[in-house]
Amino acid sequence: MSQPSTVLVVDDTPANLGLVLESLGAAGLRVLVAESGARALELLAQQPVDLVLLDMIMPGLDGLAVCQRMKQHPVWRDLPLIFLTAVDDPAQKVRALEAGAVDYLNKPVHPPEVLARVRTHLDLQAARLALQRKNTQLEAEIALRLDAESQLAQSLDRALLIADREGRLVFQTHRATHLLFKHLAHHQPGRLPPELVRVERYQSPAGTLLLHRFMEQGNDALTVLYLIEEHAPPGPAELTKLGITPRQAEVLYWIAQGKTNAEIAIILGTSPRTVEKHVEQLLERLGVENRVGAAAQASELLRRLPG
Asked: Could you tell me the residue range of the domain that residue 122 belongs to?
């Protein structure tokens, strides 16, 4: 059974709010009363509170000062706060809202209206906290998934694909992406090429792909494919011998294959602008003026390697 919400009522003459206190209690809310701003801060420090009804004009620590203290406190700053005042001054209402209040009521208050507003802001606060918890949970789950996928995609040198029963690719390593574009240059990104759906061996002008399939017994929702290039020729990794980074080597490899920056961006799962920056750095590192010169150096190195 859930605990009743706690409302802290702060007023230097709480007897004037007798009907309001009775109304809140009758609605099943737990009510705390503080007769000064200092006492209100003591109660906030002693026990959890869900909403504060705060008189704006009090001797000593007034409502605005209490509000300011609350907004500076990491635990209290997000509590919904409703100001109460006997002064019907629009400028004062603006100051109250600017200070962080969620609502403002003029005295003498009407108990049913107070109860309705308290319930509304308690419901809004509960919804906000539930959404915050859900977002935190989702962010944690997404972070774990992205971290796992990144580690798998970046660290595995194997060509692994995971496809659902509709042929959508839900995961693929960089090596798998590389082989798909090499052997099926015009395939639709994000989908398993029809040519690979039922075969164990695929012959393309670029060579031969061997396919190994893995599927959970009795469950065809996902299929794992392991691609192996038969008699694989030298690939991007060999181009690091030119003194460039592994990522730059991937970009250079595809430049040598005649791909545009936009096509390379799709293959590598990045943006064309990022590819452009890699190309600029490549040209400078290799000491060439254009893509043709870079491609020539890559082709010459790959040609000399056994494969």
From this structure: 6-132
